[in-house]
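The protein record quoted in full:
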Amino acid sequence: MSELRHPLFPEHLPSFMTAPGETDVLMVITGAILLLFAVAVGVLYFRLHHLPEHIASKSQKVQYEIVAVLGLLAMFTHENLFWIAGLLLAFIDIPDFGSLFGRIARAAEKIARIKSSKL
């Protein structure tokens, strides 16, 4: 590289300077770090969006489906309110009113002596 120098070129060059035609190692390392950082941020983003669904997976099926839909709406519309609503719904344990109302209906039919018509 010394034979290619101009007479007005400084004597001591920084270590990251490369000669013409050589590989710029600093640029390759910086590009690799940037790529790894972008992948890590993407994984963190998707993991954070999956958090309400992961919490709601232990609850009822209907509640899980509502939380999953709210998570998808939040991801595709970029409205954080949907994600917050899904997270709050995932933490709240909704009681099963369907079986309670079914028992009340069967008891009322029994009192009224009506034969139940099950679907």
User: Anything to note?
Assistant: The chain has one domain: 23-112. The radius of gyration is 32 Å.
